[in-house]
Design brief:
Length: about 290
């Protein structure tokens, strides 16, 4: 198998620029899978049937799609798939804003935007209600000639999106290489242990002991704090690492399954298909089609 690489896109943003807006109509998606240093908000309409890949997430989109990506390492692509539309509209907004601790955007009025930007390191997909809430602003953004007003309008888009419920993260944290974060020391300690030992057998009593709790109490505590069962969390972490190995290495699926803590290949294939919607071999093939050799 030939080794393939993600294109690292050099974006048009230069020097002290804040926004780059590409508003275009087209009949098909042809650009290969890529990543880039700057943040991106990508809006697509009239493209039902297009396959959107963000990290290890692969979904077929409907008439409207809006995704925010804020990690320079997270690869993404929209590919034609079964879309038959003759007039696809895509508005790509790449932006370079300073969200550092000493910046204006670190101040209180921007808290919800900062939280959203952090979540979007795994890719963030917005529901139709949120898309409709900002549709008019996105529609006219490329027509605003005054740069100051364009930036203000874009900040309004980000703010409105940050207030909308129902946004979903796309890539798993282990695939996206996102550091473990949590506001509970007990949960954080367990999460870090899982990240470092995902390939080994992990048992509830062992992890509960790390948190200084009984197994039943910790199980309830973990579910209450994260909204997920401990077993589902462990499976998702393992699948994220497995997906990354499927994409980045030539190892066999059998090798990858055992390296990622699954006790047998059939179990791995069954869980992968249930969680990712396709078999590991199909997942690998999909990524090979969207990558190019560089």
């Amino acid at each position: 198998m030939e080794e393939r690489r993600v294109i690292h896109e050099i974006t048009p943003l230069m020097g002290k620029d804040v926004l780059y807006i590409a508003d275009r109509h087209k009949k098909e998606f042809t650009y290969p899978i890529h990543n880039h240093e700057v943040y991106e908000l990508n809006f697509v309409e009239h493209a039902a049937g297009v396959r959107r890949i963000v990290g290890d997430s692969s979904e077929i989109i409907g008439e409207y799609d809006l995704v925010l990506i804020t990690s320079p390492d997270l690869e993404h692509v929209w590919e034609q798939n079964t879309c038959k539309s003759e007039d696809i509209r895509e508005v790509t907004i790449q932006f370079d804003l300073n969200f550092g601790e000493d910046s204006l955007l670190a101040r209180t009025p921007f808290i919800s935007i900062r939280k959203m930007m952090n979540e979007a390191r795994k890719g963030l997909s917005f529901p139709l209600e949120a898309i409709m809430r900002v549709h008019n602003d996105i529609d006219v953004l490329s027509k605003i000639e005054d740069r100051f007003y364009a930036v203000m309008r874009f900040l309004n888009i980000l703010y409105e999106l940050s207030l909308c419920p129902g946004a979903r993260t796309l890539a798993t944290s282990s695939y996206a290489k996102i550091a473990v974060e949590d506001d509970s020391r007990r949960i954080l300690k367990v999460k870090n242990y899982i990240y470092k030992n995902y390939m080994d057998e992990l048992r509830l009593p062992q992890l509960a002991e790390l948190a200084g709790m009984s197994a039943s109490a910790f199980s309830r505590f973990f579910k209450l704090h994260t909204g997920r069962n401990l077993s589902d969390y462990i499976i998702d972490i393992r699948l994220g690492y497995a997906a990354r190995k499927l994409v980045d290495t030539n190892r066999s699926i059998s090798e990858i399954s055992f390296e990622c803590g699954f006790n047998n290949l059939s179990n791995f294939n069954r869980i992968f298909k249930r969680k990712k919607g396709c078999a590991p071999s199909e997942f690998r093939e999909t990524y090979q089609k969207t990558r190019i050799i560089v």
